[in-house]
Amino acid sequence: MKTSGQDVTGVVLAGGLGRRMGGVDKGLAELDGRPMVAWVVERLHPQVEHLIINANQNGDRYGALGHPVVPDRVEGFAGPLAGLHAGLTAATTALVVTAPCDSPFLPEDLVERLRTALDTSDAQLAVARTFDQPHPVFSLVRRDVAEHLAAFLAGGGRKIDRWYGELRTVEVDFSDQAAAFSNINTPEELAQHTRR
């Protein structure tokens, strides 16, 4: 673990229904012989002190990767914010970083660059961006925003960019690694990346 990962919990977001993947649990769809989530864990784990997987189904299979599995605390498959909320609730570190289970190529310096920006700007949340596109599921947040997020979710809020728009936020440019943020949503995209 790099020093930038101290006091950081990584949360792999695998709580969705996988509708675009034909109802298959996306994190468990195989890429080159391994579940996609295993590639994400392999990249994120060295960057953090602790790692949690947020999943609402197939807990045993996710648990086989050797990290705690926490389900959403908000009912109804409420999206990535519910996964972040579950991670913030379970974490004991000051910072939490998220990455989705369908982005197996995520940057190996994700946490380092997000943390530098978070500390430099005294922000509450640092979010990755490539060119003019923010990637809100790749974010580093201070755990003390948990109450704010809980209130947002309790009020029916689900849009991640609307939530962090209410916080002190810094966007971090990863345009030099744009391909690292490729996510795999459909069987066709999975086949393309497997061939690659």
Give an account of the 3D structure.
With 196 residues, this protein is an alpha/beta fold. The protein has one domain (3-195): Spore Coat Polysaccharide Biosynthesis Protein SpsA, Chain A (Alpha-Beta Complex), CATH 3.90.550. The protein is 31% helix and 23% strand. It has 7 helices and 9 strands. The protein has helices at residues 36-44, 59-63, 80-90, 110-121, 146-154, 160-164, 187-195, and strands spanning 8-14, 30-31, 34-35, 50-55, 69-70, 95-100, 125-130, 133-142, 169-173. The strands form 2 sheets. It has a 7-stranded mixed beta sheet with strand order 5-4-1-6-8-7-9, with helices on both faces. Strands 2-3 form a two-stranded antiparallel sheet. A hairpin with a 2-residue loop joins strand 7 (125-130) and strand 8 (133-142). Helix 3 (80-90) crosses helix 5 (146-154). The protein is globular, with a radius of gyration of 15 Å. The model has no long low-confidence stretch (mean pLDDT 91).
In short:
By secondary structure, this protein is of the alpha/beta class. It is built from 7 helices and 9 strands; from the N terminus they run βββαβαβαβαββααβα.
- Spatially, the strands of the biggest sheet line up as 5-4-1-6-8-7-9
Total number of helices = 7
The residue fraction in helices comes out at 25-40%
CATH topology group: Spore Coat Polysaccharide Biosynthesis Protein SpsA, Chain A
CATH class: Alpha Beta
Unreliable residue stretches = none
Strand content: 15-25%
CA-CA gap between termini:
29 Å
Count of discrete structural domains: 1
Main sheet specs: 7 strands, mixed
Q: Mean pLDDT, nearest integer?
A: 91
N-to-C order of helices and strands: EEEHEHEHEHEEHHEH
Number of strands: 9
- The gyration radius over C-alpha positions equals 15 Å
**What structural class do you assign from the helix and strand content?**
alpha/beta
In one word, what is the shape?
globular
Per CATH, the architecture is: Alpha-Beta Complex
